[in-house]
């Protein structure tokens, strides 16, 4: 009957097979086993160029009998694979949720920049810098000189924070008051007029934020209170996780920071809807006619300059310098639609909108104010179309 190898003998033979290329001292256990293998009753082992090979069945049993501890001693400790985890900052939102929130607030940034450009009559650019989940107290410590608006979010139960840097806020207020926006880094309490102007800016932001959330879940954002210091704002416990959306605002040569703080517990009921695929499907299903009333409302509220022009005249610099009180300047009236000279009429004016003549009429009085009565609608000039020349 074939002899069964012990564990020590198996390990000794495996060590001998793996160290063929190296010169080692003879192992007593191996020599003893080789002597036993030479007896007629024992199963013969094959020898090839100094290698001792057991029968295949025993080699398989030997390979299967190797323990993890023996492998560790032979090959040394392997590299440990681990991922750092901070229990003070648990990740409650997946990467897909954060990606959806980033797409949503990039859409909000585009809407809000367009609204501010129209309201401030200035070039505006808003970019989403980052969307991350942080503890609430860490977010509060990062705020230094900002105005904070605490928002009620319905139909969800909870509050959010809309924060804007004082520097860019005073630049926008200066722009609204007729300045260039170069207010500098002013840190002080707002006056009553400045509070009203700042609140108007925030109302534009909340309206655009509602529009951005509509494809996911219709939400209403209302201002609950306004605070100038983060020490008096506590909407959730300090160790609770919040979603921090950090944005950068540029108005010409001036820039500042703006952020939105959304507690995790606030958006937890609608986390199932925060997927990139659902967001894209919702935005694609939105019908074009829904934008019609919004576009018409914005166009109807857009102010354009309208000038009543009596006529035109060309003067030399000498004639211009000789003008005195009581001087008469002959005005040239615009021609008719067919190009024929138009007879002059007293008090006939052209209404110019955007450097183009749109209407013609007559001046008069309406009560105590000057007015223009429109008599004619000017047909726009035909556009010149460039045709490709045929060779």
Automatic annotation (TrEMBL):
<keyword id="KW-1003">Cell membrane</keyword>
<dbReference type="Pfam" id="PF01052">
    <property type="entry name" value="FliMN_C"/>
</dbReference>
<dbReference type="GO" id="GO:0003774">
    <property type="term" value="F:cytoskeletal motor activity"/>
</dbReference>
<keyword id="KW-0472">Membrane</keyword>
<dbReference type="GO" id="GO:0009425">
    <property type="term" value="C:bacterial-type flagellum basal body"/>
</dbReference>
<keyword id="KW-0283">Flagellar rotation</keyword>
<feature type="compositionally biased region" description="Low complexity">
    <location>
        <begin position="36"/>
        <end position="47"/>
    </location>
</feature>
<protein>
    <recommendedName>
        <fullName>Flagellar motor switch protein FliM</fullName>
    </recommendedName>
</protein>
<keyword id="KW-0145">Chemotaxis</keyword>
<feature type="region of interest" description="Disordered">
    <location>
        <begin position="18"/>
        <end position="50"/>
    </location>
</feature>
<dbReference type="InterPro" id="IPR001543">
    <property type="entry name" value="FliN-like_C"/>
</dbReference>
<dbReference type="GO" id="GO:0071978">
    <property type="term" value="P:bacterial-type flagellum-dependent swarming motility"/>
</dbReference>
<keyword id="KW-0969">Cilium</keyword>
<dbReference type="InterPro" id="IPR036429">
    <property type="entry name" value="SpoA-like_sf"/>
</dbReference>
<dbReference type="GO" id="GO:0050918">
    <property type="term" value="P:positive chemotaxis"/>
</dbReference>
<dbReference type="InterPro" id="IPR001689">
    <property type="entry name" value="Flag_FliM"/>
</dbReference>
<dbReference type="InterPro" id="IPR028976">
    <property type="entry name" value="CheC-like_sf"/>
</dbReference>
<keyword id="KW-0975">Bacterial flagellum</keyword>
<keyword id="KW-0966">Cell projection</keyword>
<dbReference type="GO" id="GO:0005886">
    <property type="term" value="C:plasma membrane"/>
</dbReference>
<comment type="similarity">
    <text>Belongs to the FliM family.</text>
</comment>
<keyword id="KW-0282">Flagellum</keyword>
<dbReference type="Pfam" id="PF02154">
    <property type="entry name" value="FliM"/>
</dbReference>
């Amino acid at each position: 009957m074939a002899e069964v190898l012990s564990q020590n003998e198996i390990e000794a033979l495996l060590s001998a097979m793996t160290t063929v290329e190296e010169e080692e001292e003879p192992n007593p256990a191996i020599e003893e086993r080789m002597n036993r293998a030479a007896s007629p009753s024992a199963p013969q082992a094959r020898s090839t160029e100094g290698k001792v090979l057991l029968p295949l069945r025993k080699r398989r049993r030997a390979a299967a009998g190797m323990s993890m501890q023996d492998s560790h001693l032979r090959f040394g400790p392997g590299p440990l694979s681990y991922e750092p985890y901070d229990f003070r900052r648990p990740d409650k939102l997946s990467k897909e949720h954060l990606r959806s929130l980033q797409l949503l607030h990039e859409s909000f940034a585009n809407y809000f920049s367009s609204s501010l450009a129209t309201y401030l009559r200035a070039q505006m650019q808003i970019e989403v810098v980052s969307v991350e989940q942080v503890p609430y107290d860490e977010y509060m410590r990062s705020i230094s000189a900002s105005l904070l608006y605490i928002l009620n979010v319905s139909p969800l139960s909870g509050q959010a924070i809309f924060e804007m840097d004082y520097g860019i806020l005073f630049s926008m207020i200066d722009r609204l008051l007729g300045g260039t926006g170069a207010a500098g880094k002013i840190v002080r309490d707002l006056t009553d007029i400045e509070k009203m102007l700042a609140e108007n800016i925030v109302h534009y932001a909340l309206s655009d934020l509602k529009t951005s959330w509509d494809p996911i879940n219709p939400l209403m954002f209302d201002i609950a209170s306004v605070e100038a210091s983060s020490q008096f704002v506590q909407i959730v416990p300090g160790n609770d996780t919040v979603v921090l959306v950090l944005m950068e605002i540029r108005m010409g040569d001036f820039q500042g920071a703006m952020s939105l703080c959304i507690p995790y517990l606030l958006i937890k009921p609608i986390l199932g809807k925060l997927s990139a695929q659902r967001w894209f499907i919702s935005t694609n299903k939105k019908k074009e006619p829904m934008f019609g009333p919004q576009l018409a409302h914005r166009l109807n509220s857009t102010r354009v300059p309208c000038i009543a022009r009596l006529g035109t005249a060309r003067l030399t610099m000498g004639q211009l310098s000789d003008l005195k009180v009581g001087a008469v300047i002959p005005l040239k009236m615009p021609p008719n639609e067919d190009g024929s000279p138009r007879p002059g009429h007293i008090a006939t004016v052209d209404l110019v909108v955007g450097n183009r003549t749109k209407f013609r009429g007559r001046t008069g009085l309406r009560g105590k104010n000057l007015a223009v009565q429109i008599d004619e609608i000017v047909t726009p000039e035909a556009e010149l179309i460039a045709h490709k020349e045929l060779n």
